[in-house]
Amino acid sequence: MERLSQLYGHLLDGMIAAAAVILLGITFMIGLDVVLRNIGAGGIPPSNELSEYGLYLITILAAPGLLRRGQHIRVDIVLRAIPPRLAWMIEWLGDITGIVCCLYFLWYGVRVTQMSYAAGSYSIKTLVFPEWWIFAPLPVCFLMVAVEFLFRMRQLARSERVPRSDAVSAS
């Protein structure tokens, strides 16, 4: 199981790297678009659209890896103020809630993707492509977040009965 967790961690690191490359590409593209428009060369017509899709991809690609690293948003002031065993149980509640939400978004994402594919819907803006391409990464990434919650729950079960030490605020 440890080896599987390590391999999965490498996959998540690759996804974070892909998100960083997309961010770099968006940054370069927006800068180039501004320069081209200012010199009268017309700019890059799909830059706004590509930026929107890129921000979406950055968010869902990075989410599972950020959860693994403990770099997600976490309000832990209450966990530090209550007895450690109770805080540990609340960690469980948070993980269970997280996995249930991920499974819901996985189900919903699959459903929306299938419906879009079946309807033959297209996204028609500056770029034209099948709409389901936009939706397809969503269920995959939420499945990966759910898997990461399972790894976190395994780690929590094997740890001391205190709240996690990752992502601790300045308390």
- Backbone CA Rg: 20 Å
Structural class: mainly alpha
Quaternary: single chain
Give the ordered list of helices and strands: HHHHEEHH
Taken from the alpha-carbon principal axes, the silhouette is: elongated
**Percent of sequence in beta strands:** under 5%
How helix-rich are the residues, as a percent range? over 70%
Low-confidence stretches: none
Q: What summary fits the major beta sheet? A: 2 strands, antiparallel
List the domain count as a whole number.
1
Number of strands: 2
Helical region count? 6
| Spatial strand sequence of the major β-sheet | 1-2
Average pLDDT, rounded to a whole number, is: 93
- N- and C-termini, Cα separation: 34 Å
What does this structure look like?
This protein has 6 helices and 2 strands, in the order H-H-H-H-E-E-H-H. The protein has helices at 2-38, 47-69, 77-81, 84-119, 132-135, 137-158; strands spanning 122-124, 128-130. Strand 1 (122-124) and strand 2 (128-130) form a beta hairpin. The longest helix has 37 residues, at 2-38.
